[in-house]
## 1
Amino acid sequence: MHQPATSQRWIDLLTEEDVAFIKRLILTSGSLKDLAVAYSVSYPTVRLRLDRLIDKITALETRDGTDDYERLLRGLFAEGKLDESSFKLLRKTYLEQKPSP
């Protein structure tokens, strides 16, 4: 099914780093242990990165009436790149300035 040009797919909202992580995960056949070796980090570090990416994708995939900007904010918050107070302030300001449908 074709999506309207104004609505991006969740994968289009991921960073290059996120896409590279997903690619490496696939190339290691989903083995977090092998992925940890590939990135030269510990298993818990890879697990945390994957959990944050899962939260981010879940937030970006949400289709509950939110638009691309709000989904992006939710994704950044899920990834830990925005703290809760910044997320709430940005979302509140955006919603106040957003034209009514």
## 2
Amino acid sequence: MKGLVQLDKSLSYTLLELPNLVNIGIRDNLLTSKSKDKWFPESSDDCFKSIKENNPLLNTFYRNMKIDSLKTHINTASDTKNKKIWDNNQNTFDIILDEGKVHYPNYLEQDKSISVMQPFKKYMNFNKYQPYFQPRGRLSDLCTLNSIGPIGVKFTKNTKQDVSICYANTFDDKDLSCITAIIEIGKGTNLVLDEYFENKKDSIKLYNIVYLIKEGSSVTINRKYDLNDKDNSASIVESRVIQFPNSKFTLDVTGEGSKHTQDIVDLEIYNDCYTNILGTFNCFDKSINNMYVNLDHKGENSFSRVDVRSIIDDQAHSSFLGSINVEKSATGVDAELFNKNLLLSNTATVFTEPQLDINTKEINCKHGCTVSNIDKDQLYYLQTKGIDKFTAEETIKRCFLTI
């Protein structure tokens, strides 16, 4: 096969070539695993058929995301697996989600309000989740297909939890890392979830995460991206959020981009829900940062707000695509979506595209986007107060992201 190099039991490949390698079994994956029927038999087959027909990397969905940095990246699969030292992560975080495995402290064994979903755990019924992992024609399909196995965490009903999760990797190699995860929050539960996405040096990490937020629950996710090795690491995080009736969900994302970052959020919102999506990004050097938010209002009387802000400097690249879809029966919806960008360099690039698809009149919807430079009058005013130019610029930048 053109472009492939095989030496010393190692295989180098790009993501464009990966669909043709799935059947070879270069790693344990959902399609070739002996446990496939216990996990996602239909979804893995459908994902495989989808990527054979249309490689996700060629999807026009990625047209403004500077996708070439992923197309040309060389991944290396090897029989030699060097285990990575996690530094202090095991003591810093409550739960560590890895490729096909969940690491957690002993106290969770006794905590009946939290249960861990391991791929090889006896009596674990993953089949009921597979409708949420049907192909979408995106990189999440490659993630699902090439995961060692699905993992997850389940929070029981009517509890209050404050939990931190690190998405990490066991092996210190340059191979693609894929994590397919399920986060299920029971009815009436109040959850604050701190998420941390660890970079894998000289490698790409794909995530396909489904969040099931049951009736009457309230969930706040504080999502942060690793700043170490970000210039030579790529993270593609696809989140699918299902908000059952009368639930509340807030996602607060912060980051600086990386060699290539995608934060893709698809939400299905039902009756009487509250949804709040916040994003603050400070992108500089040659970092690439892309965010996509799609709110699909399926039920009545729901409230949603999207506010994503980015600072783009040096040769950085930023893109935002946001959409609000309101179905015909979803009357009483109140939804707003805004994206604001502060462009500080002639060599930086920013793409912003807000969209509305409204199918009923009995709603309130707004959307908008801005791209601006630092206001010279504001800068001058701060300097007249004795503040030097650099400090004045930093103050304006901080205010832009927080006010």
## 3
Amino acid sequence: MRAYGSLLVFDKGDDVLATLQQFVVEQRILSAWFQAIGAFESSVIAYWNRETKQYEDIPVDEQVEVLSLAGNVSPSKIHAHVVLGRRDGSTLGGHLKKGIVFPTLEMHLARLEHEIVRARDEETGLELIR
């Protein structure tokens, strides 16, 4: 990954979430919001099941366009949602758990003034912003 101010450019083979998390830690960024477009050669998205209070993985083992990737990041957590475009024009979407870049991903990272603080919500079992 290469950084040009607030523009991050991910390279072939980068694991976007791991690479972004490492960058945030190294740059001592407390919190940020991001948006991105590009493509993945493989990915895992997930759907949160309200009844089981668990994420259900959806492996995507094909080349897809990243039509929209948005979320927030802190040194301890990334929360990202993604819309992926398939070759036939259909789309998939959900919580991004893993995305391997090919050939590139372009991300705008906007630092936030205040740290994102999360706390466990007992009803859902999720770590929500408080």
